[in-house]
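User: Continuing from earlier, I have the next pair ready.

Assistant: Great, send them over.

User: Here they are, in order.

Assistant: Folding the first of the pair now:
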Amino acid sequence: MHKTIQCAAFAAAMLLAGSAQALTIGEIDVKSLLGERFSASIPVTLAAGEDLTPACVRLEDSATSKYKSVPVLVRYNMQIERSGNKALIKLSTLEGLSEPAVRIDLIIRCGAKVSTSREFMVTQKLADTEKK
């Protein structure tokens, strides 16, 4: 009987842990080249009933970043596109970036239930000047 209770408690804990981590942030996709206006998108997967609004999403300059020497992305525009349990966070700048690398500290906090963050260090590719 004791073993049955332990197994049931373990199963319940696994279910709760799985639902607590339902919001996941995917890999960033940078579309711009060095010197161009920055353009990137970040996919987010949501669980049933979760919502993602612009009020929930922000970029911060994290004091605990392991890439503190890399400049943080500033003066950006953010759009969120939603389709079912998927969302796409689109980031862009109005001016071209001359920095070869930028840091993005993404924080998603939608109430007490949904909170997660992810840090990206992205490098900008050089434009291909060779004609083939």
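And the other member of the pair:
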Amino acid sequence: MLKATAGNFNAARVTDAALAASRQVWLAGLGAARVTRQWTANDAGQVFRSLVREGEVMEGRALRVIGKRFDDSLALATVAWNRARYGAVATVSGLVDAAAATLPRLRTNATAKPAAKKTRRSPAKTRRTRKAKRSLRKA
């Protein structure tokens, strides 16, 4: 059976069909280019102007819708910003008031002199230390 199918297969006929198909695609492309050129020369100007008018109408609609939504969003953002700013100012004011209330207590503790360390020195060491201080003062 394969031999019968292989015998009926004609390579030249397949090659001719492929060549004809590719030529038809080429000619269709040339025809499309010619029609497009004629269309642009004769009718494209009117179609282009029509498309521009439709685009202007759509742009106007879009700007109205977007503009309204943008205005609403801007108003909401402004309200949120003002609330956040008011909250921050209130918080900082509260912290300042709290710090001012505790500041007098901190000053009294900071101005108090720390307790002096009491160490026992022998009388001889005390005399030597005093002499050393006096000699530094003279110099």
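Worth noting for the second one:
The chain has a mean pLDDT of 77. Residues 44-111 form the longest helix (68 residues).
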